[in-house]
Amino acid sequence: MSKLQGNLKRYGTALLAVLIASAITAAAEPLFGGKAPLFFFTIAVIVAAGQGFGPGVVATVLSVASVLLLFREIYTMIMANASLTLFALLGLGISAVMGRLHRINAALVETKEALQLANERLSERGRALSLANEELQRFAYVLAHDLNGSVRVICNLTELLVQQNTSKLDDNSKECAGLIVSKGLRMQAMIQGLLDYAAAVERPAEKTHTDAGTVVHRAIKDLDAMIHARGAVVTADEPLPHVDAVESRLVQVFSNLISNGIKYCPVDRSPRIQISATERSVDIVFCVADNGIGMDMKYAGSIFGMFNRLHGDEYEGTGIGLALCKAVIERHGGCIWVESQVGQGSQFYFTLPRPDITGQAKGAGQSQRRPTDVVSSGALGFSQ
After folding, report:
1. What total number of domains does the chain contain?
2. Rounded distance between C-alpha atoms, residue 61 and residue 92, angstroms
3. Which of 96, 145, 235, 273 is the most interior residue, by most CB within 10 Å?
4. Distance between CA atoms of 241 and 352, rounded to whole angstroms?
5. How much is the pLDDT for 258?
6. In contact, 323 and 306? CB cutoff 8 Å
7. Could you give the CA distance from residue 369 to residue 211 in angstroms, rounded to a whole number?
């Protein structure tokens, strides 16, 4: 029914346009020396053709009929020797062109409406997915914390059981208990790593203007026991630049890269870690270089994936650290990659955007304490 009403409206517009053109032409005929100008009929055809090819053709036919029935002579207008036949052809041409444009416009309108509807549905699904994701994250956090608590209890009870029954347990039983504790601690580390990774890929906290030297100092302080245990030497450029970042997340990045450099170093070699930074026009490139076992570059892309470990159980680890680094750096608008040779150590690079002018001014009054490039006894020294 609506389609019929639409057609009646379009053809009614064509008929009305011709009637108005006829009335105006009749009124203007004396001004043209008794000759009928085709100008107003041309406008009527264009108006009708705007409604589609059919209405344009009807308007052309009605215009020609009106001129033949109502007017004796035709004014030649602009074109020399213009005639009613030329007008008819012109009207049909205009109708064809305008009709084509009308169909294209109608198709565009339908496409636009379909896109709007699709966008609305997509937005609804996006909101539903966001709610489901938040619910899943809450569930995962609760589950992880519960698992972490249960594993901790298992480890503590196992150790207590061994301590209280040392004389009653044989060597195999003690070995089994030790395995339970070690696997439990590994599971705890993995759960904590997953929690850290989940927090890193969530919407980041507000960035602050941060001294990268202070960040490195915090990371090294957290790893102090590991550094001293291996007699590692960690050095850093002075001064390291300021960056706009979430400080706690950047500490995680440096901690993971430094600890990897120490962990994946042969036992007969003293680990050496060098941290440097290069400022470029739009970003800052940080480098954490080590003298560890290195790796084949064919694995350079895969090592940043979750749970991707190249050395199995030969070295301790959860396979989450580098994935966490990648998530943090990408959340900060940078990228991370590695360059390495087997037996020659590795250089981990990552970029962070340069801080804006406001950030630089904001950081001007911050502490100027930065790391020195001289390290002794496995700890990074600082000077005032």
Report:
1. 3
2. 9
3. 273
4. 11
5. 94
6. yes
7. 9
Q: Which residues of the chain have pLDDT under 70?
A: 1-3, 29, 31-37, 71-92, 94-95, 98-99, 102, 137, 199-205, 307-318, 356-384
In angstroms, rounded to a whole number, what is the distance separating the alpha carbons of residues 318 and 296? 20
| pLDDT confidence of residue 129 | 82
Q: pLDDT digits over 186-239, tens only?
A: 777 777 777 777 766 666 567 889 999 999 999 999 899 999 999 999 999 888
pLDDT at position 80, please?
A: 34
pTM: predicted TM-score of the whole model, two decimal places: 0.54
Do 336 and 301 form a contact (C-beta atoms < 8 A)? no
Whether residue 291 lies inside any domain: the answer is yes
CA distances 331 to 77, 258, 324, 357, 384, Å, are: 70, 20, 11, 21, 32
The C-alpha R_g of the chain, in whole angstroms, comes to: 40
**Do 177 and 220 belong to one domain?**
no
Longest C-alpha distance within the chain, in Å?
132
| Strand pairing report for 272-279 and 379-383 | unpaired
> Which helix H or strand E contains 278, and what residues bound it?
strand 272-279
- Looking up residue 237, the CATH number of its domain turns out to be 3.30.565.10
Q: Give per-residue burial for 53-71: e unless 16+ CB within 10 Å, then b.
A: bbbbbbbbbbbbebbeeeb
Residues 114 and 159 in one domain: no
List pLDDT tens digits, range 335-345: 999 998 888 88
Task: Give the pLDDT score at 73.
Answer: 58
Beta bridge partners of 337: 349
Same domain, yes or no: 247 and 375? yes
67 and 159 belong to one structural domain:
no
- Please list, in sequence order, all residues whose beta carbon lies within 8 angstroms of the beta carbon of residue 187, skipping any fewer than 6 positions away: 147, 151
For 223, the domain range is: 208-383
Contacts of 215 (CB under 8 A, 6+ apart): 245, 247, 250, 251, 254
Residues 239 and 371 in one domain: yes
